[in-house]
Amino acid sequence: MSAGVKMLVWGIILIAAFVLVVASIFMPFLVPILLIYLFFVFILSFRFLYEYQRGIVFTLGKFSGPKGSGWTFITPFVDDLRVIDIRILTIDIPRQQVITKDNVPVTINGVVYFKVVDPSKAIISVQDYVYAVSQYAQTALRDVAGGMSLDQVLGEREQIGKDIEQIVENASKNWGVEVTDIKLQDIDMPEDLKRLMSRQASSEREKRATIIKAEGDRMAADNLAKAAEIMRKSPGAMQLRTLQTIDGLGPTASNTVILAVPVDLMDLVRNINSAVSKKK
User: Fold this and answer.
1) C-beta separation of 57 from 79 below 8 A
2) pLDDT value at position 114?
């Protein structure tokens, strides 16, 4: 039936053009009308599609088939051409108020990247595929984020995006579109919760600093104990250490070192005490 209607329409168009050509031979003032008529037929019959566009033709309301890029020929008054952009489209996910699993209110927004892979399904299966993908992404965002705790929402953005992408992809596979990626842009929390988290982070930093300092003090004490044990076993080690300490004070006139008791005398006293202890 569609082919017969097309032939009838083109027959009428050609007969009208023939009549105008013959009439313009005898009535030259009809030449402009003939040119306007031919131009009008050309405009209605040929459409130009870019490389990133695809066309869907409906003949008398019924789907006829897709059209590729370049010049596309259709029948005037019978065919209707719908043009689809097959480039990657970007739509925003408006800010969504979400209650997390641990009852914390957060506001999340994101962005969806998708493209049309089957223009026929994108036109026939869904009324507005852009609006449909946007609404489904918003619902999926609330469902996924609502099933997680606040710490998970803050620390697993990439996983949340993948979960939303999987949900939207499963729902839109019959719409002729393909979701390439979904990214979360911003996660906003109440101001009082931000202040609490800031204080918690500051306390954690102070805790780590205290632990590190205590660990350093313990290691220093262990090393000092080992050094003291080594010096105790070597009689001249303490004297060398004393001389190194004096040398480290520097030769400036402001530094004055007074040794009230010679080091040798102190060793002599220590040896006498050891001898007396052994006699006892």
Assistant:
1) yes
2) 92
